[in-house]
Amino acid sequence: MLTTANRANTPALQHVAAGLWGLRDVFANLYFVRNLDVIADSWVLIDAGLPGSGQKVQRSAEALFGEKNPPAAILLTHGHFDHVGALPHLLAAWPDVPVYAHSLELPYLTGRSSYPPPDPTVGGGAMAAMSFLYPKKPLDLGSRVQPLPADGTVPNLPGWRWVHTPGHTPGHVSFFRENDHTLVAGDAFVTVLAESGVATFTQKQEVNGPPAYFTPDWQHARYSVALLEGMEPKLAATGHGIPMRGEELRKQLADLVKHFDEKAVPARGRYVGHPATADESGVLSVPPAAPSTIPLWLVGAGLAVAGGIWLARNSHKISGARQSRRAPKQSYSSSTVYRG
């Protein structure tokens, strides 16, 4: 269980709501959810952070639920690199834990297709400018991944339901707890300006559309935000940014729906007015790449911000390592068919 001592070793782990904890992994969030209807510590993991974060996620899970207590399941809002990066480590550590995702997301989780290429020309800041550097290849989870139940129920989480919220990816889903209107929205919308390096570093809280550089279908993205706003969430825990709640969430989310084209859709970009197409086999086509006008200094700024975020999140580890060294030793493409 999470005590004062082990909380100090997991500073990015925060309680969000009853039975819900969030972990910020550099610039992406993942969530631990406990089944409130079961006395035992049955729990699930929603999303899995960045590549290389497996030990961090596992330590956080152990801090919350104890050692040798793996999740009943891992649920994915979608399969972008910053939401599945820890899976290779976690699936090795938890060999009997199943992974669930929407059926339209399975091609990107079984090695059959890559996602449409990110679009660094959308503007908005350094995180968008350097998106061409982000990992693009699909994971191959084989038989470990299976489709979410078609009836909208969520495995091992009674009282929750999943909702198909496409646009950011074809099989993107969000998770909703009926009794208190708690929403885990993934990247259907986010609570930070994800394109901006400065906003990502400072975590300035505001409702925004899905990360533009990785959104290939704006018509569906618009539909999904309106769908979630109509569910009247009282708390939104998103894939990027600090969870929001109450009247401020309601007001900003309604404003995003009303002004989606001005607030979310980029003024220019590869997929603006020309969505990528996909089916159950993966991506079928993508529009030609837009001409790039990104200054090199902006890409450099993005890399500097990313490094600064990493240092800020890991400064306690660096400090601890330095102290340990000082201490005396003790005994103890743009083709019409896009396949990855």
TrEMBL record:
Coiled coil: none annotated. The chain crosses the membrane at residues 294-312. Keywords: Membrane, Transmembrane, Transmembrane helix. CDD domains: yflN-like_MBL-fold. It comes from the Bacteria. InterPro entries: Metallo-B-lactamas, NDM-1-like, RibonucZ/Hydroxyglut_hydro. Residues 330-340 have a biased composition (Polar residues). Residues 27-240 form the Metallo-beta-lactamase domain. Residues 320-340 are annotated as: Disordered. Gene3D superfamilies: Ribonuclease Z/Hydroxyacylglutathione hydrolase-like. This is MBL fold metallo-hydrolase. It comes from Hymenobacter tibetensis.
